[in-house]
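Objective 1b: paired records.
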Amino acid sequence: MSFFLNLKSSKTVKCKKIPEGSHAHELLKYSSATLGSGNIKMAVQLPDGEDINEWIAVNTVDFFNQINMLYGTITEYCTTESCPVMSAGPKYEYHWADGSTVKRPIKCSAPKYIDYLMAWVQEQLEDENVFPSKIGVTFPKNFLTIAKTILKRLFRVYAHVYHAHFRDIISLNEEPHLNTSFKHFIYFVQEFSLIEKRELAPLQELIDKLMVET
């Protein structure tokens, strides 16, 4: 999104590029233009005549890129020493498992967890069997389930950043970027019921505040 052009990313996985000229790129441009008008509610709604899977796919890629860039700016503050566990406050701790290479959840530091998470998401986005980029190729039957898992895990990065690194975000003058990105994310996942309410609990107070400010 345009409001991220001035962010300086650090050591993160590469952002996922949506090919220019593709239908997905046109959908992203539509979303960006609508967001630019300040109407987040309209920006997340499924455009008339569009496939819901493709709309969710395009936005999932966009959120991955946004979070990747935002987290990349604070990696020097998010270390094994400062964040020995992946958490979103004292009540919420996350252990990593991807169901294939790591089947049993493991406890790890926040930077390690986020490294695992972002690499896993990137792997899903690059898999043509999950996120097809060619016109006419249908999405798999379990696409929505995979997208929900991706978005649930991306939310955890927002949650960790808000709980553990908000002062760092303020010191870098990135609070408006973070809040705009998160507000867009929340409107989107709520529009299509993509994350269960209990998963949003670590930031529920903030979510309620952002919704009132709309």
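Objective 1b, second protein:
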Amino acid sequence: MRKVTIVLALLCCVAAQECNPRQFTYDSVVCVCDATYCDQPGVIEFPEEGSFTVITSSREGLRFNVETLPVSSEETPDAEVVTLNKEDVYQTILGFGGGFSDSTGYNVVSLSSELQDQFFISYFAPEGIGYTFGRIPIAGTDCSTRIYSYDDVEGDVDLEYWSLTEEDHEYKIPLILRAHDLTTYPLKLIATPWAPPAWMKSNGAVNGSGVLIREFFQPYANYIVKFVEAYEAEGVELWGLTPANEPLGGLIDWDINTCGWSSESIRDWLKDNLGPALDTAGYSGLKIMIHDFNRNTLPWNIDPILEDPDSAQYVYGIALHWYEDTRTNPEVLDEVHELYPDRFILYTEAAHEHGIQLGSWERAEEYVNYMLDDLNHYSTGWLDWNMALDTVGGPNWIHKYRDSPIIVDAEADEFYKQPVFYTIGHVSKFVVPGAERISWSTTATTLQVAAFNDPSGRTVVVILNLAEVEEDVTVTDGSETYLNFRIPAKAIQTILY
């Protein structure tokens, strides 16, 4: 039986490569990539009828380990049972991805050309983890090396001096075009402004407590339209747009690039300026998502915008960040869905703050636990923030260092795939655009689960074991067949059948 399993596992995988592990000070390993070698899981297909495939990553060091096993006519005694209801269908998945930040680009271009290729394959190719989304900052963020906008000439309301910068031409656009050429599904690109030019803000600074001065509502709308046009001219077509990153942040004294927006001011700017400006320029199909902030301010922060038909007509979805997920119950997402069922919910930013932790399974587990929880409450996808940072978690002009799925050591010409890269990949690689979430139930208290109908008609189940012990698991869907397998302690598995 073991020989059959191994043969089937090899057949289902194309060009799979093993992790080159390295241990730092945390509870698991990173996988090291250099110019001569980089692990890739390969193309993993659904197995033949009568069998199922289990892909495993674990704290102990497994990374996309593949086994194909036979379907059984009975369940394993004393196993934890996960029961699927494939007829109980919820939201359609849009996809998963990350941010094309300045910091990401800065780190990627510091690598040799061979290693840059491995970076793009790792994230975007079918042999990698299959990202299908990218988020593009409009001008600078805290994850930049300097303060800048596209028009820093004070009083230039006609935007005569508006222009893209070296960051766009060196760190963003080339990366986006390379990623675009690798994806199996069309790459959906979202653009987001952190702050307008400082001279348009009430405090005269890109950060701190300040709002957009009313007389600049239309010039700033034109500023955004110019970005959409400029990127299109460079071959980068946008799918979506959020009017402001974390709009409530600029109402207090934040150190990151920000602009304060009340719900009412966003509503008025959207219906009177930005929406009409995009329509006039021919971008009425651009999917505008409001909020782009944490779920602890829902639904009150979106109600004024969606209750006004003049602003609501421009809104396709609600964008969310994960930073308050630990303190706000996910049921608020259900409430938002019930209030506005014709608007999709999409997580557009997530990152661990306070620097990097090389090899932390604890962080990887926390990340994917909330990702699965959000998917179980109507999120249509999840976008990570920086796709690559350096060995201190930057660059970052305010020195607010973060963690990332890939950490770059430019001096050594290598990068490290963190455990979180793989836990994200257990979802992004297999839960493809067009998949539909289905319901499930289990009495197991240490398993987090999400399940999906694949567009092909097959089924994808993701299971996270939070326990310190391995578990026998049986998955069943009422068809009198059983998928029996074992999940290691502190591990994540994706099941294809």
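The domain at 2-91+437-496 is CATH 2.60.40.1180 (Immunoglobulin-like). The chain has two domains: 2-91+437-496, 94-433.
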